Every structure is written in structure tokens, then in C-alpha cells.
Amino acid sequence: MHHKVVYIFPTELEAEPFRRLSPTAEVVISGVGMAATSAAIASLYATCERPCDMRLILAGLAGSYGDSCALCEVVEVRSEICSELPTRFQQEYHNRCCTTLRSVRSNTVHCGSESCGADIENMEGAAMFTLAEKLGLRVTEIRAISNRVGEPFTEWRVEEALNALAEVLIKIEKEL
């Protein structure tokens, strides 16, 4: 059975290296953060003729808590939490990994917070995992490590990380 694969990137900057390598791939720019990502995924779901046949791949940059991941390493998120919520409202979302990449635990944040046992942080993952759980979507989250959490932006390795991400996504695309 053929599955529709949609690549979701928070920003055009994150998508650009992948678009160069795979110009025919379906790419959606969701916007940064959980609200924008939720809206983009809900729109995809509402307009897809057979959402059960769709696979979403959320891809972009992430920061590593300490040395838990190497700079420019590309990883797959196996679980996601939003630690900024009060503890009684926190939920950890789990996903079955579908690549051979190292799997990590991620924390979705709006502005920097403690790791709460996560390896990395991003700003969109929990939104995608929430919708996947509620709507029965097949999802994968792939992140490239551009920085250590708390480092000044001038020290981030954005271009290198995005090029590594694009190359890994091309390999994943061939496997799907």
C-alpha cells in the first residue's frame, strides 16, 4: 500500500536544504511552536482524502541538554513531554520508532526550561504527538542537534545541522 508522506518543518530555513535535495517531496511549513504546528496538522488532516494513509514527518532543529547528543547529530524522538505544564497536566507521548537513528526523549518548550530527563528540546513535538494520538495519525519526529540548550545563538551550528538533517531525510525517504 502506498502511503502519502508529508514533511513538516517549523520554518523555511529548516526546510530549504531538504527541498534542494528532494524538490518533489511534499513539504509543509507549520510555523514555530505548538499552536502553529497543531493548526498545520489539523489542516492537513481535514484536507486529506485518506488521513489513515498519511505519514507525517516533523523535522527540524533541536537543542541538546548538556552532552546527551552530539552537535549536528540527527536523532528520532521516541517520546515527548511538555515540562512547562503543571505536573498534574503533563503527559508523556510515546511513539514507535521507525528508523535506525538513535532514539531520544524530547521536551517541548516555549522558552528554555529544565530537561526533566529529556535528551533534547524543541518547540513543536508535543503538539504533533497529541494530534497523532487523538486522530490516529502515523508520525515520526526527526531532529538535528544545532546547539546545547542555553548557548547563545551565535554558537549554534545551524547550517551544518540542517545539511545533516536533509541528508538523513533523503535516506529515510528511500526507505518509506
Descriptive overview:
This protein has 176 residues and is α/β, with parallel strands linked by helices. The protein has a single domain, classed as Rossmann fold. It contains 4 helices and 8 strands; from the N terminus they run βαβαβββββαβα. The protein has a 5-stranded mixed barrel with strand order 3-7-6-4-8. Helix 1 links the parallel strand 1 and strand 2. It is globular and about 45 Å long. The N and C termini lie close together (11 Å). The model has no long low-confidence stretch (mean pLDDT 88).
CATH class: Alpha Beta
Radius of gyration: 15 Å
CATH topology: Rossmann fold
Secondary-structure-derived class: alpha/beta
CATH architecture call: 3-Layer(aba) Sandwich
- The number of distinct helices, counting runs of at least 4 residues, comes to 4
Give me some keywords for this one.
single chain, 176 residues, alpha/beta, Rossmann fold, five-stranded mixed beta barrel, 8 strands, 30% helix, globular
Summarize the structure.
The protein is an alpha/beta fold and 176 residues long.
Please give the structural blueprint.
Blueprint: E1 4-9, H1 12-21, E2 26-29, H2 34-47, E3 54-64, E4 74-81, E5 93-94, E6 103-108, E7 120-122, H3 125-135, E8 138-148, H4 158-175
Parallel strand pairs: 1-2, 1-3, 3-8, 4-6, 6-7
Antiparallel strand pairs: 3-7, 4-5, 4-8
Helix pairs in contact: 1-4, 2-3
